[in-house]
Amino acid sequence: MAEIESLLHGFEVALSFTNLALMFTGIILGVIIGVLPGLGGANGVAILLPLTFSMAQTPGGQTSAIILLSCIYWGALFGGAITSILFNIPGEPWSVATTFDGYPLAQKGRAGHALTAAFTSSFVGALIAVIVITFLSPIIANFALEFGPPEFFAVYLLTFSAFVGMSKEPPFKTLASMMLGFALAAVGTDPVTGTLRLTFGTVSLLTGFDFLIAVIGLFGIGEILLTLEEGLAFKGASAKLNLRAVIETWRELPRYWLTSLRSSAVGCFMGIVPGGATPASFMSYGVARRFSKEGDKFGTGQVEGVVAPETAAHAAGTSALLPMLTLGVPGSSTAAVLLGGLLIWGLQPGPLLFVEQKEFVWGLIASMYLGNIAGLIVVLTCVPLFAAILRIPFSVIAPIIIVICAIGAYTVHNSNFDVYMMVVFGVFGYLFKKLSYPLAPLVLAIVLGDRAEASFRQAMLMSQGDMSVFFSNSLVGSLTGLSLFLLSLPLLTWGIAKARGR
Amino acid sequence: MSEQSGERPALRYKAAELGVAAIFLLLGAIVIFDSVRIGARWGADGPQTGYFPFYLGVIICAASALNVFRALRIREADNKTFVEIGQLKLVLSVLIPSAVYVTLIGWLGIYVSSVIYVGFFMRWLGKYPWWKLVAVSVGNSVFFFLIFEVWFKIPLPKGPVEALLGLD
């Protein structure tokens, strides 16, 4: 098995002292980011990305940098559960479903059980997803090596059509927000001819809009403004996690193996197609409630009701890296930021990564196994510490978070203009969230905009402007066909609902 | 505006939807305008620079037009509160100082502006005693100075105060 061999080599890379230290640093930072309101996986990684610029220039540094950033992501995934269970505040959108049963459990005095169940099932979900990545990604990458510009454009089209067809937001809002992302990506220098566009003679716009600034503003500042509406105080259950609660829960958990397995499957699927962790957690909660013997007790504090969404959220969050690594198409906002990082460090995400950067890819995959073990240890032992962060009054923590966001925005290009733009994006983030314009397709579009455009134009050049190139062989044809089907899905369901209503 | 239970609404959904859709329409129009200016056709050497953005602008405008249409169809009874006056005050009480803060960064540098900003926030919204406020706000800036300037060697914007202290 070539995968096992590569993986073992990856472990050699990941097990160096520096990389292990970075792993724990990343996890701890990630959990803090996940616990704090206004900081989440996507903008946490975005803020810390500039710190890795110099790190990535040393030999082997790219691997260390991705280990640090991906561990922040795992940490944020773990951290979201803490606030959901103890404070009934989902720190991350994907932990909303965890509050349904997690918070009632905490109110019954079983916070320790709920937390253990959440962390353990997160770990299981992530582990299954990493195993899927280990064995599936080389196959997909190998397959994708044959892709030309039309195929790549069809994959991008499929990604974005999936957002329109499958998100729960109104389709035209998804479309508007996505196209705005593409338009923002188009600002600046045309990647093919070098002509300036949409800059209106200003110097600040020459380099275009950086997706990092958009992410920090939309998710960071926007989230803080949203949190403010709820008032300034947090009220929560106390966090005690003793060994007895952990062992009791671990004894109980094997009973839910079927739920875990089902949730992992839902999670992996939703992560690979760009559905993302949030719908995965809701879907898996719903499925578990329907199939469980005690389904009608869900919502009153069932351990199974914590297991299902947490497993799925982690499986989805982790497997979102699979399309990012193999095709260069991220499955979630945070994966999009990681992809942006790869580009900045000078790596070309996509199938060639598996051929040219073996050490990087397998180091990262090995670090996913280790990082999640590290994460489980960190969160199980340090929960009270992390919960204490939320007891810092909002009037202290909010300005500090905004200062962190401002520093993060500045360090991207050392430009004050970016910091102003961050605030503007923040206002948009607040409005978009409240009016259910989805943010993930916007961010993905900013990251992928130039690449999507380049592959479209190359495909057009190949075919002399003939659109039929997107149906020229069975592979690209089925990808395009599936995209068109997904695009028209909202229209179809609307039509069916209308016909039934008659 | 009709008084309902709870706080008075500052803005209702219909107006908010229309406002945001209008911004989208405007942005879409700008994109179309500039794309046409630089050429959005099929040139001798393939698609021109504005070709791709032009269609983006068209889709933005079309989707927003539909969003406007949908917003106009919100019935009066379903026109819920978008934001209450009390909430809006809280949001603005963070947004306006933040806007001032990022403007200050250009003149005073990030460290001094952050001291003022964190201090102001704690005083105004938290009503903390002066010593606590100075400790937290100065401590915060010193902490970031050590992390960025000393440890990671990443220079952040500095102003006259740092120059005076010889830290530039």
What does this structure look like?
The complex is a heterodimer of chains A (502) and B (168). The termini of chain A are far apart. The model of chain A has no long low-confidence stretch (mean pLDDT 84). Helix content of chain A is 74%, strand content 1%. Chain A is mainly alpha-helical. In chain A, a hairpin with a 6-residue loop joins strand 1 (188-189) and strand 2 (196-197). Chain A has helices at residues 2-14, 17-35, 41-48, 52-55, 61-87, 96-107, 111-144, 149-166, 171-186, 211-229, 243-252, 257-272, 277-291, 303-319, 321-327, 333-344, 353-356, 358-389, 394-413, 416-434, 440-462, 474-501, and strands at residues 188-189, 196-197. In chain A, helix 7 (111-144) packs antiparallel against helix 18. Chain A has a two-stranded antiparallel ribbon. Chain A has 22 helices and 2 strands. By secondary structure, chain B is mainly alpha-helical. Helix content of chain B is 69%, strand content 7%. Chain B is built from 5 helices and 4 strands. Chain B has helices at 13-38, 51-72, 85-124, 130-151, 160-165, and strands at 9-12, 42-43, 46-47, 81-84. In chain B, the strands form 2 sheets. A two-stranded antiparallel sheet of chain B has the order 1-4. In chain B, strand 2 and strand 3 (46-47) form a beta hairpin. In chain B, helix 1 runs antiparallel to helix 2 (51-72) and helix 3 crosses helix 4 (130-151). The N and C termini of chain B lie far apart (56 Å).
